[in-house]
Amino acid sequence: VGVQTPFFGIRVWNTFILDGNLDPDSINGVDVKYTGFNVYRLGAGLYVAVESVNREYQKAKYKDATADTALGNFTGFEGTQKSYVLSVSFPIAM
Predict the structure, then answer these.
(1) Does residue 93 carry a pLDDT above 80?
(2) CB atoms within 10 A of CB 32
(3) Is 82 exposed, middle or buried (CB count within 10 Å of its CB: 0-12, 13-18, 19+)?
(4) Model pTM?
(5) Max alpha carbon distance in the chain (Å)?
(6) What is the sign, positive or negative, of the torsion defined by CA atoms of 65, 68, 69, 71?
(7) Quick one: how many helices (H) and strands (E) in the chain?
(8) Burial of 26 (0-12, 13-18, 19+ CB in 10 A)
(9) What's the pLDDT tens digit per position in 11-54?
(10) Which bin fits 70, alpha (ψ -120 to 50), beta or left (φ > 0)?
(11) Residue 54 near residue 87 (C-beta atoms within 8 A)
């Protein structure tokens, strides 16, 4: 969901991911899988014509995670991840 002023100015948006899974690649023999996560994102940007500078905040909560390591399997732990993103965006026509 988002809104922006016409032509140039300000744009704001938010995003909700209600449920999902994440299975990143193994790092140094540790394979972690996250399940049951939900994500909230809030962003704002300033734009002129078609170029925009954006700032976005994200908070993700993982209800269950498992980790397979050389020391064994660990299950049943929760996690929270917060991050900020600064980006520049513009359209590309193909």
Answers:
(1) no
(2) 19
(3) exposed
(4) 0.69
(5) 57
(6) positive
(7) 0, 6
(8) exposed
(9) 899 999 898 888 888 888 888 888 888 899 999 999 888 788 99
(10) alpha
(11) yes
CA distance 21 to 44: 26
Give the H or E element holding residue 29: none
Q: What pLDDT, on a 0 to 100 scale, did the predictor assign at position 44?
A: 94
User: Are 39 and 26 a contacting pair, CB within 8 Å?
Assistant: no
Residue 7 predicted with pLDDT over 80: no
Alpha-carbon span 50 to 8, nearest angstrom: 8
Q: Does the pLDDT value for residue 69 go beyond 90?
A: no
Average pLDDT of span 74-83: 86
C-beta separation of 28 from 42 below 8 A = no
Mapping DSSP to helix (H, G, I), strand (E, B) and coil, where does residue 93 land?
coil
